[in-house]
Amino acid sequence: MSRDAEVIVLARWSNEVMEPLTQDDPERTWRGRFVPIAGHWGYEFGWALELEKMRARKGLLRHLESLPWPHPHTVQVLLRDQDDDCFGLWMFQEGRLVEVTIPRTERFHQPAPPNEDFEPDPGMLLRTDQNTALPEQTPEARRDTRSPW
């Protein structure tokens, strides 16, 4: 299934950690490779990745969690799925990458699919301050608990 997404990783002093992720690796559960983002003095301070399929992103956050970050408190992962109004923010909390609530936004979820033959859906991160109708939120008990990332 096609569903575009962008990922940006910002992390201080992490070139060595991110370097293997700038290469294709068929052993990873997710597909693609990060491209370094350099500042005007040439230092790399971030890495970007574009994904075009839902299956291409499976396990990305778990992989990023497993890396030996020299300063995990500086790691910020920005994720924007094609239906999102803006990037979502994930940061380390107790060793896990978790989504941080951004003011004036809410993630709206679809009900869980009937079985695991369907890929997990990330929901939609929507701005709540735009005076537009928002979808009805799916009760937490009816959401898919699998990570789409």
Molecular structure report:
- The protein has 149 residues and is mainly beta.
- It has one domain (4-142).
- It is built from 2 helices and 8 strands.
- The strands form 2 sheets. It has a 6-stranded antiparallel β-sheet. A two-stranded antiparallel sheet has the order 7-8.
- The longest helix is centred in the middle third of the chain and has 7 residues, at 60-66.
- The protein is globular and about 45 Å long.
- The two termini are 15 Å apart.
Q: What's the main sheet like?
A: 6 strands, antiparallel
Strand order of the largest sheet: 2-3-1-4-5-6
Number of domains: 1
End-to-end distance, in Å?
15 Å
Proportion of residues in β-strands? 25-35%
- The low-pLDDT segments are none
- Integer average pLDDT: 91
The H/E string reads EHEEHEEEEE
Proportion of helical residues: under 10%
Class from helix and strand fractions? mainly beta
Number of DSSP-assigned strands: 8
Oligomer: single chain
Shape: globular
Radius of gyration: 16 Å
- Total of helices: 2
